[in-house]
Specification:
The chain is mostly helical. It is built from 9 helices and no strands. It has one domain. The radius of gyration is 32 Å and the shape is elongated.
Length: 302
């Protein structure tokens, strides 16, 4: 297939729209899970809203981290596969290991562009960002393990060794203490449930794509996974602003209802107190009149 054949295939209707719609629906399911969790673990509206944003942006960062890494690997794979001759082939064979490092730097820049410009991760601090990117490497290792041992493809062994080295380097560095090592593991382990959600999301998308031949098997597994990540990123962008607005509105209504309920409770308490005070005053007035009547009778007897 030529380049234009691939373009026509992947943008063929209605398969393109169905695949995108599936990505959007699954993204909405992810948002729903985050909202339910945030609502169960936070009592106040502001904390609920912050927790929802925090969870969502951690998921964004995981997809960005994995997607950009897969992107430069897909580019590396496609060049290796389709560039078969000419001066560029000679240049590529001579310097492809160095070009791989350049691709990695470009992927880091793209990752920063995505989480600072496209979908700003405003609720993540540097520590949370580092831990989720570290989890992104584990996410990639699992994908490569699937390709090697289940899909039975040995074309990516170099990448697996490369990322295992990177991952170990992120865990253990020359001036790290044992406490730093444990904290690093703890922060990364906290992201594992989110990583499993991302893998399930990716798995459902790929399963559907392969089942109806929308994702072409001969196009390379890594290329198809990267292509699927592009759909996921588009789905995140499409749903982000709408879902954030809906959550903000829902939290606002909930806070309004709670405020109204508290105000009604205070008003009812005030009315009860007023009625009680009025009854006490009437009782005291009645007792005073009775005492006056007794005094009058006593004077009359005298």
């Amino acid at each position: 297939m030529t380049y234009m054949d691939y373009v026509r295939h992947y943008f063929q209707m209605p398969q393109f729209l169905i695949f995108l719609l599936l990505a959007i629906v699954l993204m909405l399911v992810v948002f729903l899970v985050f909202y339910v969790y945030a609502k169960k673990t936070n009592k106040t509206g502001s904390k609920l809203e912050h927790e929802f944003y925090y969870l969502s942006e951690r998921f964004y960062e995981l997809i960005f981290s994995g997607g950009t890494i897969i992107g430069f690997m897909a580019a590396y794979y496609l060049i290796n596969r389709f560039v078969t001759g000419g001066s560029f082939k000679v240049f590529w064979d001579s310097y492809k290991d160095y070009i791989l490092l350049v691709f990695m730097i470009i992927s880091i820049l793209i990752n920063s562009f995505l989480d600072h410009v496209v979908l700003r991760t405003e609720h993540l601090d540097d520590e949370a960002m580092a831990s989720i990117r570290l989890t992104g490497m584990l996410y990639m290792i699992i994908i490569f393990a699937y390709i090697k041992f289940i899909y039975d493809d040995n074309n990516y062994d170099m990448f697996i060794a490369y990322f295992l080295t990177l991952m170990i380097g992120r865990f253990v560095y020359f001036d790290a203490s044992f406490t730093d090592f444990l904290n690093c593991i703890k922060r990364a382990a906290a992201n594992i449930p989110m990583m499993l959600m991302a893998l399930a999301y990716l798995g459902i998308m790929c399963l559907y794509g392969y089942s109806n031949d929308y994702l072409l098997k001969h196009n390379g597994v890594i290329t198809n996974i990267f292509f699927t990540h592009l759909f996921i990123i588009v789905a995140m962008f499409v749903t982000h602003f709408v879902v954030y607005a809906v959550v903000k509105s829902a939290v606002g209504r909930e806070c309004g209802r709670r405020h109204e309920s508290r105000r009604d409770s205070r008003g009812e308490y005030g009315r009860d107190a007023g009625r009680k005070s009025s009854r006490d005053a009437n009782r005291k007035s009645h007792q005073s009149r009775e005492r006056d009547e007794v005094l009058v009778e006593d004077f009359s007897d005298i």
